[in-house]
Design brief:
By secondary structure, the protein is α/β, with parallel strands linked by helices. The protein folds into 3 domains: 264 residues, 3-Layer(aba) Sandwich (Aminopeptidase); 155 residues, Glucose Oxidase, domain 1 (3-Layer(bba) Sandwich), CATH 3.50.30; 135 residues, Up-down Bundle (Transcription Elongation Factor S-II, Chain A), CATH 1.20.930. The chain contains 16 helices and 13 strands. The radius of gyration is 24 Å and the shape is globular.
Amino acid sequence: MTVTDTDLLNRVTLDAPWSLVEDFAQMPRWKPDDVTAAGQDIARRLGDLGVPVTLHQARLHLSIPYDARVEAGGRTFRAKPPAYSTDCRDGVTAELVHVPATFSTSIDTLFTKNQDQDASAEERIRGKIVISEGFSFPGKIREFEEKGAVGVIAMNPGVDSHWGICTTIWGTPDLDDLPRRPTIPVGAVSNPDGQALLEIAAAGGQVTLFTEMDAGWFDQPLPEVVIPGTEDPDSFVLLHGHYDSWDVGVGDNATGDAALLEIARVLWEGRAGLKRTVKIAWWPGHSTGRYAGSTWYADTFAMDLDAHCVAQVNCDSPGCRWATEFIDVSWMAETEAFCQDTIRRVTGQDSAGERPHRAGDYAFNNIGLSSFFMLSSTMPHDLREEKDYYVVGGCGGNIAWHTENDTLEIADRDILLRDIKVYLAAVLGVANAAVLPFDWRAQAAEFRQTIADYAAAAGDLAELSLAEDAAAALADALESFYRGVEAGTIRPDAANDAIRRLARILVPVNYTTEPRFRHDPAVPVPPLPALAAARDLSRHGEDTLGFAQTQMLRGVNRVAAALREAERLVRGASA
């Protein structure tokens, strides 16, 4: 860090951020009127700190859950409907059938479908209400609906039930998305209640599922702060997090909102030391619109993001109790070394990361932005096991995530102060770097390994040599490019242009299946998804193998073309 950056980190205090955390701990923020009040409150706080703010009005389609219950055998079981469950106030009655599933033991598998395929045959569940272990995540709900279930009960892992969202639609739907809007009621129950319901299912009993929902179009405030750079003001880093939450949502995500507030204050006061612009945004519609606020921003400002954004940084669930380690941190491969170095310099700690999930507010993959962070610090794995906690998607690993228990005790002042500094240092590291600190050689190496793994899985059933050769050529070109950057034979402006443009090519081919400027469904996306069919080729019979091989051929062409385009870009910059 430069002296200026160090000075800015030393200016971080908890005065403004902790006040926000304490106040938000008394403010539920999932109903539209409450979200509006919270967004206006953020804007007011920024104004009080002397930080100019634009309050956009985002028109979002949202699904607001209110209540749910299951009635069976003279008992009533409390449930929580996920956003985008259909409204079913009169109830739907049907036989209850159990489709076994496993509870995730790692964040890597938290969002994957994990139900027993042998027990979820269409003839078994059509016309039934399904109960299955896990959260009400969209891939699972979508599959049960497609197979004819008339309702789904998600049996959560612990003594509490968790709010969530059950649609695969990312953001506000467009016409092409509407067929994927859920048409059945869904409810989440606690594990103890789920065990009682399993007994009813085993006996062939019936249940009635009730859900109370509201859905429609809502204008929601979206605060944005723009802190102009002094040398390259057109280029910018986008730092962001959601401010709507389930109930009062302290660890998810009042602490993140507080971090953004303090970073906005420090950067505004120290703006004379910024080379590139920093934009900071607080999203509505994260919880009830599947990242509708960040998606609205990605759609509305797509051309500006495409032309000028050098990185997006997501701030979700920092500063939570017991979150002493930086493990399972989200980052794209080209950003890994930079993120690890930043965390080490600020905290003295090593860190370990993972490929970003198709989750959080990563609404910018189809534009092609280098990205890092989502969840940052978390509790150690051995502490989670000691506490007998199951895996959740935020709150530093606290199982208060997405429940009414995510209250003030989940936040930790000292950890929040540390995490604010990590985020601030990372933003400064990108904003003030002479050459953007992203190493595409790491991503090229990952591509080569991914393609090799797919080739091994495909065996003689598919030919991946075009992709293999393109990845090798790109890796060679990148070695020459970075040698030129280090030797000074490639000018910083030319290097930065190439590094930014590489993201526009390589992020979409690695993280998306849809064309640029559309949004992939909210289900896991494997590395180089156009080639992922290679993993299942050996499972196809004669009736479908040829179709799968055709898909592979097209996927190889897509990947090879993207990698060749990236190679040409790099060699052109090196010339």
